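> example.struct
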C-alpha cells in the first residue's frame, strides 16, 4: 500500500502545501509547531522547513505514503474548496515487531485512536472530533490487496483499518460524516514513544491518581514529566481512572487533555533555536508516520506546519462523537443520530460545533479529561 515518495513541484513548495481541496492558504510566518492531535504531532514536528534544507532529501526518504485518492476513486464526498481542511489522524495498535511489547500479534492492525481534525478557514482555530474505536458503524465495501472486502452493518469502527488499511478507514469516516478527508496521518505505538522521548518528555499535572496495571501506569496527583513509555500509557489507559468503566470514552478525554499539554510543551521548548534537537525530532517524526501521498514530503509537511502556526491549544475545541451505549451489547456504543448530525453539519459549514451536540452523549460525561492539565 505504501508508495515511493514523489518529488514536490516548485509550485507546490512555493505554496507550502498542495491545494487539493480545502487548502488554499498562505503559510503563516510564525513557525510555532502545532497539530491538534496525538498523531498529527508527528506531522507538525517537521517544523520550520527552511532550516532543514541540507537534509531535505535524507528526511524525505524516511517517509511512507498511501495513495488514498487512487484507492478510493471518485465515489467520495465533494471536494469543497473553501479554505478549510479536514485531516483524519490515527494511532495504529499493530502488535507486530517492536509493538509486540503491548500484546500478542494477531495478524492485523486496528485504529487505537481516531480523530477528525477540522482546520477552519483562515487557519486560526480547529475542532477535533474523537471517534471511539468501539462505535458501531456501517462499514462500506473496501478494497484491500486487490480484493473486495464486503461492507458490514454494525461493524466496530476500528475494524475498518484492520480489514482495509488507511483507504478503508478514510472511506468509513467519509461514509459516516459525509465530509471528504483532505489528508491522512498515522503513527504507531513505537513511533509515538520515540517522538515524545525526542521532545524531552511532556509535562503534565494530574489532579487525581491514575493507576492502570494494563498500561503499566501509576501517577499520583501532582506534576510529572512523562517520557514516551508513560505518555503512551496515559493515552492508552482505560482502567486506571477513578470511577472509570474500562471503556474507550474516558480514554479519549485523557487523550484530548494530553494533546493540549503536548501542544503547550512543543510551543515552549524553543526548537528553532536548537538545530540539533530540531533535526533529531524531524528524523524521529519522519520515521514514525505514514501519510497520504499528497502529504508525504518534507516540503508538504513543513508547509502544513507553518500554515497552522497561528493555532494554539486555547484555539482548539475537542469533543467526542456523540454516542450512547448499544442496547444489544453493553461493550459497544452507537452514534446519537441527531447530535452527530449537528457535529457533521457544523464542520461541513465550517462553523463551531454547538454545545447542544454533546448534551446527553456518553462520550463527554465523566470528565476524565479534568484529571490531566
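> example.seq
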Amino acid at each position: 500500500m505504501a508508495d515511493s515518495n514523489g518529488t514536490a513541484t516548485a509550485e507546490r513548495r512555493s505554496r507550502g502545501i498542495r491545494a487539493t481541496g480545502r487548502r488554499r492558504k498562505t503559510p503563516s510566518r510564525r513557525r510555532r509547531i502545532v497539530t491538534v492531535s496525538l498523531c498529527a504531532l508527528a506531522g507538525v514536528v517537521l517544523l520550520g522547513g527552511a532550516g532543514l534544507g541540507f537534509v531535505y532529501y535524507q528526511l524525505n526518504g524516511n517517509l511512507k505514503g498511501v495513495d488514498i485518492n487512487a484507492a478510493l476513486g471518485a465515489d467520495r464526498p465533494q471536494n469543497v474548496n473553501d479554505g478549510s481542511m479536514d485531516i483524519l489522524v490515527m494511532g495504529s495498535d499493530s502488535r507486530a515487531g517492536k509493538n509486540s511489547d503491548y500484546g500478542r500479534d494477531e495478524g492485523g492492525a486496528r485504529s487505537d485512536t481516531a480523530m477528525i481534525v477540522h482546520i477552519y478557514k483562515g487557519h486560526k482555530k480547529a475542532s477535533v472530533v474523537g471517534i471511539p474505536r468501539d462505535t458501531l458503524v456501517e462499514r462500506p465495501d473496501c478494497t484491500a490487496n486487490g480484493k473486495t472486502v464486503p461492507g458490514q452493518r454494525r461493524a466496530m469502527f476500528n475494524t475498518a483499518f484492520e480489514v482495509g488499511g488507511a483507504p478503508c478507514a478514510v472511506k468509513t469516516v467519509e461514509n459516516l460524516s459525509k465530509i471528504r478527508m483532505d489528508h491522512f496521518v498515522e503513527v504507531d505505538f513505537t513511533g509515538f514513544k520515540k517522538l515524545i522521548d525526542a521532545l524531552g518528555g511532556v509535562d503534565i499535572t494530574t489532579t487525581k491518581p491514575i493507576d492502570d496495571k494494563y498500561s503499566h501506569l501509576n501517577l499520583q496527583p501532582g506534576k510529572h514529566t512523562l517520557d514516551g513509555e508513560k505518555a503512551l500509557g496515559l493515552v492508552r489507559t482505560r482502567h486506571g481512572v477513578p470511577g472509570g468503566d474500562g471503556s474507550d470514552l474516558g480514554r479519549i478525554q485523557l487523550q484530548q487533555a494530553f494533546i493540549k499539554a503536548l501542544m503547550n510543551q512543543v510551543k515552549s521548548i524553543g526548537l528553532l533555536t536548537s538545530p540539533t534537537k530540531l533535526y533529531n525530532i524531524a528524523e524521529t517524526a519522519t520515521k514514525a508516520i505514514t501519510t497520504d501521498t499528497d502529504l508525504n514530503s518534507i516540503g508538504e509537511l513543513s508547509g502544513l506546519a507553518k500554515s497552522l502556526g497561528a493555532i494554539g491549544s486555547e484555539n482548539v475545541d475537542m469533543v467526542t462523537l456523540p454516542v450512547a451505549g448499544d442496547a444489544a451489547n453493553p461493550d459497544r456504543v452507537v452514534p446519537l443520530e441527531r447530535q452527530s448530525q449537528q457535529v457533521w453539519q457544523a464542520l461541513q459549514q465550517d462553523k463551531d460545533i454547538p454545545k447542544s451536540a454533546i448534551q446527553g452523549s456518553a462520550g463527554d460525561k465523566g470528565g476524565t479529561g479534568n484529571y490531566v492539565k
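> remarks
The first helix runs from residue 10 to 15.
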